[in-house]
Design goal:
By secondary structure, the chain is of the alpha/beta class. It has eleven helices and ten strands. The structure holds coenzyme A and magnesium ion (MG).
């Protein structure tokens, strides 16, 4: 997925609006965008939305963000929404790969209770929203076959640490957040799952969003979370490999196969070795999925 748009789970109006905004995935939120006294209502609104949206043709994928394990709300969230057959669940404030393993086991039970195939519900984990989680970003390998992507979150991390600012005056994240961002990227690759960059909260600043998307893409992220429908087009554009990128990648793959798949070869005065081939193949796989 290139773009994943958060929608407060208690807003029927925004949920309806999300369906045709072009996002690859909607993150129907039961967590931080829903007030504590509205959790019950959000659960039933999201469950109803899932049931009605499931048959919409060409719809985005639908994930539900449940509440973190330490809230005591997780089980009831899952019980309420699994009947609606979401494509996936977002686990916030994940502290360790073991949290994902635990969620995997819970999902298996709810899938069985709802006559769903074992393993159909995927997981997106937000892994660096706490100090502990940030330090454990490397623990997600083999945590669950359901784990598809990881992302990070600056707002909760700043609350956990007590950091009073997240960015320098010129817009760059301070070291703490750059560290969490890089930990997420490394953790994703180590686990063999997709790295998704976090939200850009200033939703009227399109240039700022574009810049942050490009930086993320150049660093190796392959998608980004969104909070507003207006952000989706920009994100999709930046994270869609261009025709030129695809042609270049195809040329690298072709050159290796024409040369009998060697370890290294020279093309137009440039050395190409196995990492170049791997990178080209990954890009072609990603382009094909889109
Ligand atoms: N999903 C779907 N629709 C959305 C939306 C979203 N995330 N954000 C805004 N919209 C809709 C609005 O309802 C509005 O619809 P309308 O034109 O029919 O009235 C339209 O898009 C324009 O919205 P706008 O007036 O620009 O923004 P707003 O002030 O209504 O909302 C936010 C701003 C930040 C409250 C809103 O974007 C939002 O709720 N974002 C998601 C927050 C979230 O889930 N956070 C948790 C993860 S960090
Ligand atoms: Mg949060």
């Amino acid at each position: 997925m290139r773009s994943a748009l958060f929608i407060p789970g208690d807003s029927e109006k925004k949920l309806a609006k999300g369906l045709d905004c072009g996002a690859d995935c909607l993150l129907l939120d039961l967590e931080d965008s829903v007030a504590p006294n509205n959790k019950e209502e959000a659960r039933s609104t999201v469950a109803d939305f899932l049931r009605s949206a499931n048959d919409v043709p060409d719809r985005p994928r639908l994930f539900v963000r449940i509440n973190a394990f330490d809230t005591g709300l997780t089980e009831d969230d899952l019980a309420a929404v699994l009947a609606g057959k979401p494509d996936g669940v977002v686990l916030p404030k994940s502290q360790h790969g073991q949290d994902v393993t635990k969620l995997d086991a819970q999902l298996r039970v709810h899938e069985a209770q709802n006559q769903l195939d074992d393993g159909v519900t995927r997981i997106l984990a937000i892994i660096t929203e706490t100090a502990v989680g940030t330090l454990n970003a490397g623990t997600y390998k083999r945590s669950s076959k359901r784990l598809e992507a990881v992302s990070w979150g600056a707002e909760d991390l700043s609350a956990d640490i007590g950091a009073v600012r997240r960015r320098h005056e010129d817009g760059r994240y301070t070291d703490l957040f750059r560290y969490a961002r890089v930990q997420t990227l490394l953790g994703a690759v180590a686990a063999g799952v997709q790295p998704l960059d976090t939200v850009f909260t200033d939703f009227r600043d399109e240039d700022g969003l574009k810049k942050e998307c490009r930086e993320a893409m150049l660093d190796g992220f392959t998608g980004k979370l969104a909070i507003h429908p207006a952000q989706v087009g920009v994100i999709n554009e930046v994270f869609t490999p261009s025709a030129e990128d695809i042609a270049k990648a195809q040329a690298v793959v072709d050159a290796f196969s024409a040369a009998g798949n060697p370890g290294v070869l020279g093309v137009d005065g440039e050395m190409l070795d196995r990492p170049h081939l791997r990178k080209a193949q990954n890009l072609l796989v990603r382009a094909k999925k889109i």
